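TICKET #2291
ISSUE: user wants both folds in one file
ATTACHMENT 1:
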Amino acid sequence: MKDVKLAVRFGPKKLLSFNFHGATCTAHPSEIHEISLPERPCQCVVFSSVPVTLAPRRTLSFQKRLVYYCPARFPRYLVDLDCDFENYLGRLGSKTRSTLKRKVKKFTSAAHDENAFHEYKTPAELMEFYGIARELSKRTYQERLLEKGLPEGDAFLQEMLRLASTNSVRAYSLHMNGEAIAYLYSPAKNGILYYDYLGYDPNYAEFSPGSVLQWLAFERLFAEKEFRVYDFDEGEGQHKRTFATRRLDCAKLMVFAPNLKSTVYVLLNSTFLMLTAFSLRVSDILHVRSFLRKLYR
C-alpha cells in the first residue's frame, strides 16, 4: 500500500489533486481477468485500465459497501509485432500505407542525412538520449500544453537506466540539419512495449516528424523481434489509429471506501469531466477546435 494521487482536471490542465492511501493496478488489460481487491483495508484501489467487460455499466455504483467509479471508457490501440515489417504494412489500409510512405520520402529528401534516425538501448545510449530528448521536450507542445513532456529528475532517470540494464526499453530520435526534431520513449513490461512519451519540434511540423519517427521505429522493432506487442496506451488519436493493427476497448476503474474525501473527489472529477466534454462539443459546433489546438501548439 502507498499513497495514490488522483488529479482533477479541466481538459489537459490539472486543477488540484487528492491523496488516498491505497493501491494502483498497472497490469496490462489483456492480463486482467477479474477485479480483485486487497484484503487489507484501504481508501482507494485504482485500475488504470481494465477490459470494458469487467467494468460496471454505470459510471457510479455501489457494491459490497464500496463505491465503484468508472470515469472513462476508451480504446487501446495495439500493434502485434509477430510478423515482418512488410506484412505489417500489408495490414494497414492502402491509403494509410501510401500516405505514410509519402511522409517518409518527403522527410528523407529534405534531411539528406543517412544518420537522421537514432536508436537507444543500452544504459550509456539512454543517457545520451535523455540529454537530447529533455532539451527537445522543452520546445514541444506535449510539455508546454499537455504537461506530458519527458520527465525531469533522478527518479525517472534511475528507472530508465534500470530498464535499459534489463533490455526493457527502446528510445529513438529523429534529426534534421544536425538538430534533434523528434523523440520517442517506449518502456517494456512482460514483452509489451508501451508508447510512453513522444514529442516533436513544432517548427518542423511540415515534415511530420512524429509519424516518420514512428515508422522508422516500427521498421526496427519488426526486424529485431524482441517484443510481442506495441501498446499505444489509452485514448483516441489519429496517430494511434494510423499505425495500430487492432483495438481493445477498456475502462478506468476506481474503488473507494465511502467517506467524505472520496465523495468530494468523485463529485469534482465527474463535474469537470462533464465541463470538458461540454466545452469540446461547443468548440466543435463553432468549428474552432482545430484552430484552438494550433494556437496552443
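ATTACHMENT 2:
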Amino acid sequence: MDRSKEMQDQVRAACADKTPLAIQAGGSKAFYGRKLVGEPLDVTGHAGIVSYMPTELVVSARCGTPLAELEAVLAEQGQMLPFEPPHFADTATVGGMVAAGLSGPRRPWGGAVRDAVLGVKLLTGRGEILRFGGQVMKNVAGYDVSRLLAGSLGGLGVILEVSLKVLPRPVTEITLVQEADGQTALARLTAWQAKAWPLSASLHDGERLWIRLSGTHAGVNAAREALGGEEIQDASLWTRVREQTLPFFQTEKPLWRLSVPPATPVMDMPGMWLTEWGGAQRWLVSAAPAAGIRAAAATAGGHATLFRGHDGTGPVFQPLPPALMALHQRIKAAFDPAGILNPGVMYEGL
C-alpha cells in the first residue's frame, strides 16, 4: 500500500506548526539512539515490494515492508542482503533497517548497509518527496545522498522507498572453532584477511575463535584445510550473534559497541568482551565511566556507542568535534529546517 500522500500531509502540517514527529514502524530498534519525542508518524502501512529484478541483483521496497518478508522473497531466488542485517524482533521493517544502518556478522566481507543502497525515495521535513540515486550501481546521480540516509535514524526524512543491491547466497557455509586468546585471535584474523580465504564472519569470546567460511565447495574446503580448527554443526550460531541472543548480551549492565581498526590490540578495560568483524567491532559489557570508554576508543582511532542499557536522555554516540557537529547541523537544516523529524535522536539539539 502506498501511503506517501497521507504521510506527506502530516509532515507538511507539522512543519507549519513546528510540531515534532516521531517516526515509528515495527519498533524493533527503538532502543537504539536517544529517546524519540513528538507525535507518532506511523509508517507501518506504507509497505510492499515495488520491484524485484533477480537477474539484475536489485530489489526496491517501501519502508514499512517487513524485513522478514523481503528476505523470504530473496531466498526464493537464492539471494540475500549482503550486509546480513539484524532484526531484533519479528516486527523489523526495511525502512528501520536502513535508518538504523546496523549490519550483521558478514559486514566486513559483504559491505555495510550504505554500500548496498542504490537509491531512495525520501519525504523530507519540508514535506517534499524527493528521489536520489537509482536502481543500478552505475547510476550515481544523488548516490551520496542515498548513502547518507543509512544510519541517520530518521533525522533527515522518512525513507519512503529504497532500492538495494542483493547478492547470490553462497553455495556452502561451514563454521570452524579454535582455541585462542585475544591477541592470538587478532593476529590470526589479520593474517587470514591478507589472503584470499572465503571468510564471512568471525567471533571471539576471549578463549575461543569462531570463523565462518562461505563460498564454493572447493574454496571452502581449501580454506578449512589451511586454517584448521574443529568444524561445528550449530547452524544457528551466526543468527544468535546477529540477533544478540547469546548469553553475553543478556545483561542489565550497559552494552557498548566499539568500532576500532581491526588490528587494535586487546583493550585493557574492565568488563566482558566479545569481538566481531575481524577485530573491528568489539562489544563491551561494563559499568565503567563512559568518558573512559570513549577516550580509549578514540585513542585507538575509533569510537564508542552506548548501544543498550541507557535511559535515552544522555549521550549515546561518540561526541562530535564542533566543526563536525556544525556540518551535521547544516545537513539537518537542509532536509528538515524546522527540526521536526526525530529531533535529538542522535545528539541533543540536532
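RESOLUTION: both attachments delivered.
EXTRA DETAIL ON ATTACHMENT 2: The longest strand covers residues 158-165.
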